[in-house]
Amino acid sequence: MLKVVISIYLVVLLIAAWYLWQKRNDHFLIYNNQNKTNFTSIMAITAIALIADSLIGFCILLQDDKYLNFITLILSCLTILFFGLAINQKDE
């Protein structure tokens, strides 16, 4: 059961990474290239990090230890946290 839930979570991470990659030159919520100077790099780095988190998660999913799945959850939560902090930081 846990492997199914983590697999769904990893697929959602990949979908989020794909969406961020597709929108890196467009707009995301209220942010775009005009009001955020490093918008493209933040979106690209986050998308690549989420893909890396997903790949690590799929490798961990093949292991028998269920507690290793917390590594995937922690990595992806930290990636999303840093994305939120970076996108909300004021340009000066």
Describe the structure.
The chain has 92 residues and is mainly alpha-helical. Helices cover 70% and strands 4% of the residues. It contains 3 helices and 2 strands. Helix 1 (2-22) runs antiparallel to helix 2 (39-61). The longest helix has 23 residues, at 39-61. It is elongated and about 45 Å long. The chain starts with a helix and ends with a helix.
Topology (SSEs and partners):
Elements: H1 2-22, E1 27-28, E2 31-32, H2 39-61, H3 69-88
Antiparallel strand pairs: 1-2
Helix pairs in contact: 1-2, 2-3
Keywords for this structure?
92 residues; mainly alpha; two-stranded antiparallel sheet; 3 helices
H/E order of the elements?
HEEHH
Strand tally is: 2
Arrangement of strands in the largest sheet:
1-2
The overall average pLDDT, rounded, is 85
Low-confidence stretches: none
Main β-sheet, in a few words? 2 strands, antiparallel
**What would you call the shape?**
elongated
Rounded to the nearest angstrom, the radius of gyration is 15 Å
Strand content: under 5%
What's the end-to-end separation, in Å? 48 Å
By secondary-structure content and strand pairing, the structural class works out as: mainly alpha
